[in-house]
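Sequence decides. Consider this:

===
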Amino acid sequence: MSRRISARIGHCFTLCREQNTCREPHGVVVFDVAADGATSLGTIDPSVAAARTCLARETQFVRFPATGGSFPFQFTIR
């Protein structure tokens, strides 16, 4: 599952770099995962602010198994 998530989210950073809107992406992106597994975009590092729209769009396709509780999912930018 983590490879699929990485591919979807990594696509946003690739586009951002190609369009020269993210100069040196770094830091983390935090996704908020609800108890039912639905995911929404939380906080992002300012270095990737231009990727916010893409990240928000891709987030709707990322689902986790229902856990009965919410939790943050942190994605490190490399």
About this structure: The first strand starts at residue 28 and ends at 33. The two ends are 18 Å apart (CA to CA). Strands lie at 28-33, 39-44, 71-76. Residues 26 and 78 are 6 Å apart (CA to CA).
